[in-house]
Amino acid sequence: MQQFNQELMAYLAASPTPYHAVAEMARRLEAQGFERLREADDWSLQPGGRYYSTRNGSSIIAWRMPAARSLAESGLRMVGAHTDSPCLKVKPNPSLHRQGYLQLGLEVYGGVLLNPWFDRDLSIAGRVNYRRDDGSLGQSLIDFERPVAVIPNLAIHLDREQNNGRAINAQTFLPAIIGQADKTGDFRELLCQQLAQQGVANVAEVLDFDLSLYDTQAPALVGLDGEFLLSARLDNLLSCFIGLQALIGAGADEGALLVCNDHEEVGSMSAVGAQGPMLQQLLERLLPEPQARHRMIARSMLISADNAHAVHPNFADRHDANHGPSINGGPVIKINANQRYATSSETSAIYRHLAAQEEVPVQAFVVRSDMACGSTIGPITAAEIGVRTLDIGVPQFAMHSIREMAGTRDAWDLTRVLQRFFAEPELGMDQEG
Question: Residue 265: which of 229, 231, 306 has the closest Cα?
């Protein structure tokens, strides 16, 4: 478990954006013998083969072909997660010169908890598209790594009512300071300079970019016994890492698949989101014949892994009293009668059976009946491909904050159960009566 958490923190630190998260997953997959397949190429899949494919550099699917049986006979054990996290993105024309400072205009991505972004040491990372000196087009990941931006708070002396509640205006409060006004106002030129420092040569002009701010504070183990993990982007890179480690560590006999989609935090409706065609198109390539593919889906199951809300000791009244998960109390089955989560009694029972074999505790979450319920890629993927689905997650605090908190045991426990799930030869349940 200690080694797992050290590797998890390294993964989180290496993944400031979905692009970096997918690149790091691809690196780890290739180190374990997974072969990259490009969507534009013809594929030749072999029994027991291990493959992965990406789209837009921000979504990834990795899978293992069954060694002995056909996919139609074995089905697929699938785990889903998402690569994006709420954040602040750099606007296309971001440069602002005000009161002697150079600032960047920022756009809110997803349901960001905004207050924690003030007074943090921020950096910039993402993807840059450019034209080379010879006229050809290129793209590269970029990461300033060091702190280059800050969003200062207003002093309490100038707004005595701040502690009594303050509405944050995303347009006027959030522009980040990156330097004095004597610095160049050409942000694209700054990106060219940074690319050159990273060894990307022959960049004539930056054409466009997709960049986010992120907190440079490293992940850390906290608590008297180091029982808590604090980091940015636990929702939901924690689940991406869990699924990755489970897929790599599982046996090689059964068909298994990990899908990590971008854009969950903004609704999943995109070419690379869970409501897009990426997974369905891959399944069609695995089994082009419709009847065989339908047989495969009928024998398959998806576990959607996305973090759950633990009971905060200062706000226990925000939970249903009988469904209050605790950190390090075990992974949480997420249930909602209105299908905001896709868990059924069958998929829940299958998970509980697998967890019992690993001696992993199980918790359950149901939102208070007088509160709205969030959702995940689980219901979306279930509806898109018709697969039975379970929603589960590691309990955490401060979801959608710049720095979130989870337990050091829960992620390890969920990885063990998912590893058993990936290796399970049969996922069916006998029906009586």
Answer: 306
* Across 273-294, average pLDDT: 97
Handedness of CA 376, 381, 384, 389 (dihedral sign): negative
Domain boundaries, the chain: 2-85+232-423, 87-215
The sheet that has 203-215: what strands, in order across it?
A: 137-143, 122-132, 203-215, 87-98, 101-109, 176-180
> Tens digit of pLDDT for each residue in 185-206?
689 999 999 999 999 989 999 9
* CA dist., res. 83 & res. 318, Å (int): 27
CB 337, CB 343: distance < 8 Å: no
Distance of alpha carbon 55 from alpha carbon 150, whole angstroms? 32
ω into 202 cis (within 30 of 0): no
Token reading at 383: 């509806």
Q: What is the Cα–Cα distance from 228 to 310, expressed in whole angstroms?
A: 13
Is the pLDDT at 173 greater than 50? The verdict is: yes
Task: Answer yes or no: CATH 3.60.21.10 is held by domain 87-215.
Answer: no
Kindly indicate whether the domain formed by 2-85+232-423 is annotated with CATH number 3.30.750.24: no
- pTM comes to 0.96
The Cα 352–Cα 245 span in angstroms is 20
Question: Residue written as tokens 């502690």?
Answer: 163
Look up tokens 């001696």; give the residue. 359
- Is pLDDT of 183 > 80? no
Given a contact cutoff of 8 angstroms between Cβ atoms, the answer to whether 324 and 311 are in contact is yes
Residue 423 CA to residue 231 CA, distance in Å, equals 30
Angle at 88 between CA 222 and CA 276, to 5 degrees: 100
The amino acid at residue 298 is: A
Q: What are phi and psi of 24, to 5 degrees?
A: -70, -40
- How many residues make up the chain in this entry? 433
Q: What CA–CA distance (Å, rounded) separates 191 from 109?
A: 21
